[in-house]
Each structure stands twice: as C-alpha cells, then as structure tokens.
Design brief:
Elements: E1 18-22, H1 26-37, E2 41-46, H2 51-60, E3 63-66, H3 70-80, E4 84-87, H4 96-103, E5 107-109, H5 111-117, E6 127-132, H6 137-150, E7 155-159, H7 165-170, E8 177-181, H8 184-189, E9 197-200, H9 208-211, H10 214-222, E10 231-235, H11 239-247, E11 255-259, E12 268-272, E13 275-278, E14 289-293, H12 305-320, H13 325-333, E15 343-348, E16 351-355, H14 362-369, E17 375-379, H15 389-394, E18 399-404, H16 409-419, E19 425-427, H17 432-446, E20 452-455, H18 468-487
Helix pairs in contact: 3-4, 6-12, 6-13, 17-18
Length: 488
C-alpha cells in the first residue's frame, strides 16, 4: 500500500495507486483522466454521467460503474479496496460510499487536493491565491486574475469556476499563479493547501441543508486561511471573517488586511467616496494611496455596494503580491461582470429591468436590493433551508411589490405577511415554460418610471430551471418578447 503522504509531486510514483473517483461531472472526469495519465488504477463510481465522458473513459480503459444500485456500488468498492477516493464536491459527506471507503482505510480528497500535489508538473510549483465567501467569490476571483494578468503575471482563474483545476495544472502554459475559487463543499473535504494569499469575503446563511448548520458551513469556509504565507484578506464589515483569520493556523507570518466599502482604517483597502484607496500596502499607514476610481469601472452600468466591496477585496489580494495602482486601473477598465449578476437588461420608459439570477441566497439578494430604492422584486425558488424573513424585513422600505415564484413559495409568503404586511405580492404557479412570461406580464402592470424590476430570487433555481443561468436567460427572453418588442 502506497504512503499517500509521499505523493506530493507530479514526479512522485503514482503508478498502481488504487483510486476511486466518486462522481463524474467535469471535475470528476478531469480527476480520472489525470490519475490515468499518472498510471494509477482508477475506478469511477457515479449515479449518472454524460455518455460522451463514458465513451472517453472506455477508450482510456478506465472502469466506470454508473447508475448502479447502492449495494452494488459498495460491493465493487470493497473488492477494489481503494487507497484513495476523489469525491466530487457536491456529494454529501453522509453518503454510505464515503463511510465505507474511510472504513477500508482510504483517504478522501477532492480534485483540489490532488491539483495541489501536482502543481509542479511544468517545473516550479505554481503559487495559489484562494477565494471563498457566501457571495462575490466568482467576481473577485475574476478580478484578481485580471489584475495579475495586467501586471504581466501568468495567472488563471479556476477551481469552482472555469476550466477544471487539474486541466489547468496540466496546461503547457505553465501558469505562475492559480486564482482558485473554492466553494464550501470543496473546503469541507479540503485538508492541506498552503496559499500565498487567501480571503473569506463574507459569511451568511447558505447551503444549510448540505452542511447541517451555519457553524459547520462557517467552519468549512475557515479552512481557506490555514497555512497562508503572505496575506489573509477579510471583510472589515463582517466581523466573522476577521475572527476566522485570528483562529487560523500556520498564518503567523501573514499580514491580515481588511477591505471595506467605507473609508479605510490603517491596514485596510476601501473607498473614499468614488476613489479606491490603499492604507495597507504603503510605507506610511497614516496616508493613503489612490488605486482607482468609479470612472475605471466604465463597462459596468450599475456600481453597487456589493461591487465596491468585491473590487476592494480583489485589489487587496493583488496588492499583496505587488500589483501596482496603474495595473489595477487597467484591469478594471476592461472588466465586465458575468451574465446574470446585477445585469441591466433594459432601460425603457424610466424603468430598469435587472437580471441578478445569480443571487441564489438572501445575502446575494441583499446586495441587489440595497442598490435600488423602488423595487418590483421577483423572489423565490429553492430556499436550501434558509430563512428569508430577515431579508424581507430589512429591505421592506425598498420593495414596492413582490412577485413570488418557485416551489418554496409558502415561507416567502409567510415572510411578507409577518414582516412586511403592507407590501402587496402575487404568487406565480406557472410551470417553467411560462413562469417568466407570467412574471413579466405582472411586472409591467405595476412598474412605473423610477422603478426597478429586479430578478434577485434569494433561492436556488433547480426547482424549475437547469441552473441560475437558465433562469436568468428565461427572464431576459421574456423581457425581449413582452417589454422591448411591445413598447420599444
């Protein structure tokens, strides 16, 4: 039996290592492909899989057990007797296959753990900058990537976004820095990363159905700070994140730097009106260095407080590795947000139609609601065990009318009745095929000049849609058909 602690490099002897890859999405396939290339003996176990991926595995000669009953999976696991199991991050930790693998003595990693050990494939090991948080992590990861590239550093965003991280590790481009977005699912299983810079952007209720409690969710997020060597970035407006830094281990030599949407204190980066300033990476902390202004965000139509926080966080992470103000400005000037993130779809007759379908939890929806004064709010979907009532109460003064969608409508209705009884609302019971058309028809009857029709559901989308992008696309299409073509 191989000693896994000795497998710390691409050049280590991975041959004949018995590995089960559990789950066959893009990350699972990438793990199986990589391990096969290293000479390991690989068994893929999955409840379902894309036929094209299975065809490739068959060509490679990798065994795949897909769609089998649980007992058949367990029996094959026992006969294979794995030394290592690579788990796809969405798989719940209480699944019997994981418990059985652990009982057999196998270690459990994710593709992130494997990539960490293989990061020297092209010579000098890449440095990692790691980002997590309830909201904003994709935008911050992309911003950091843009700032590093602007500074001439070979950097790439990966992890929970974009190209599977093991494909990045194997890329001949030989990236100097990986900017790694990490979800709470990935961090739950993660054990021994050592990033040069790390950040927890914020902590709020999310995925409580998966983790079981806010404490367990927070504990998973906290792992990202451990063993950080240069800088731990935290949210000065979220005391939980600062406490997580103080409780981290292996960070004695790392600078702790806060980011804020307000005027920064010493050792923080923040905003003075429309100017982003640095009081953390300068010789005299009593002074401040200008990094950028709102004018540099010229490709983003809505500069929300959430965006300001994300820019400040990304700037802190980039400054920690020496990126200069002009390089930050250049990166911001060319930056655009992903689709479905506080995206202006239409501005017509004084009414703005905003697609924030990526707001899949209350914390993300709060960022959008805080940006507008008079909102026709489209809310609902799969709540994932989260209480939406505090959000309704906090932003009731900004909500003019609510359109409630999705399968978990009852808790949303109850939240309005108890927390904001004066706000009128309507429930949409239509199926996926017509739900957004019904939403737009109702929104048109209530919206007047000065209003914002906001899709920020504060819930996941898989009850009626493939994902948040599918939901946002349906919203945009309904606007094109029901608003722009009729009134434009």
């Amino acid at each position: 039996m191989k000693k896994l602690d000795e497998l710390t490099s691409w050049s280590s002897d991975w041959s004949e290592l018995r590995v089960v890859v559990y789950g066959l999405g893009v990350s699972g396939f990438s793990a199986a492909d990589t391990l096969h290339e290293l000479g390991a003996r690989v068994l893929v176990v999955a409840d379902k899989a894309d036929e094209k991926l299975l065809e490739v595995l068959e060509v490679l000669g990798v065994e795949a057990l897909v769609g089998a009953e649980e007992q058949i999976q367990l029996d094959r696991l026992n006969s294979f007797n794995p030394e290592l199991l690579i788990v796809s991050p969405g798989i719940r930790p209480e699944r019997p296959l994981l418990a059985e693998a652990t009982a057999l003595g196998a270690q459990v990693w994710t593709d992130i753990d494997l990539a960490w050990r293989l990061r020297d494939k092209h010579g000098m090991p890449s440095n990692w900058i790691c980002v997590t948080g309830t909201n904003g992590k994709t935008t911050v990861t992309q911003l950091v990537e843009a700032m590093l590239i602007s500074a001439g550093i070979r950097a790439v965003a990966c992890g929970n976004i974009g190209t599977p991280i093991l494909d990045v590790v194997r890329d001949p481009a030989a990236f100097e820095v990986l900017v790694v977005e990490l979800s709470s699912f990935q961090l739950h299983y993660q054990n021994e990363l050592a990033p040069i810079v790390s950040a927890v952007l914020n902590i709020a209720d999310d995925h409580l159905d998966w983790h079981g409690s806010l404490e367990a969710y927070t504990e998973a997020k906290a792992k990202i700070y451990n063993n950080t060597s240069i800088c731990c970035v935290y949210n000065a407006g979220d005391s939980v994140t600062e406490k997580l830094v103080s409780k981290s281990h292996g960070t004695e030599n790392a600078q702790a730097v806060g980011f804020t949407v307000n005027t920064p204190m010493p050792n923080e980066i923040g905003w003075v009106e429309d100017i982003l300033v640095d009081r953390a990476f300068i010789d005299d902390p009593s002074e401040a260095q200008e990094l950028a202004t709102f004018a540099d965000l010229k490709k983003i139509p809505v500069i929300s407080p959430h965006l300001m926080a994300n820019v400040a966080a990304a700037a802190a992470m980039a400054r920690a590795v020496g990126v200069q103000p002009l390089e930050i400005q250049n990166a911001l000037q060319g930056f655009t947000l992903d689709a479905h993130r506080i995206e202006l779809v239409l501005d017509q007759d004084g009414i703005r139609w905003i697609d924030d379908s990526k707001a899949t939890n209350p914390h993300a929806a709060a960022a959008a609601l805080a940006s507008f004064d008079s909102v026709i709010w489209i809310v609902g979907g799969l709540l994932k065990g989260v209480d939406i009532a505090p959000l309704v109460e906090k932003y009731s003064a900004r909500i003019k009318f609510a359109i409630i969608v999705g399968v978990d409508r009852e808790p949303v209705v109850e939240a309005f009745r108890t927390m904001a009884p004066n706000i009128p609302f309507v429930e949409i019971t239509d199926s996926k095929e017509s739900v957004m058309n019904a939403v737009i028809d109702i929104a048109k009857t209530h919206a007047v000049s000065g209003d914002v029709v906001l899709l920020a559901p504060a819930a996941a989308s898989m009850d009626q849609f493939i994902d948040y992008a599918d939901r946002g696309t349906a919203f945009v299409k309904a606007i094109e058909q029901g608003v722009r073509n009729t009134n434009g």
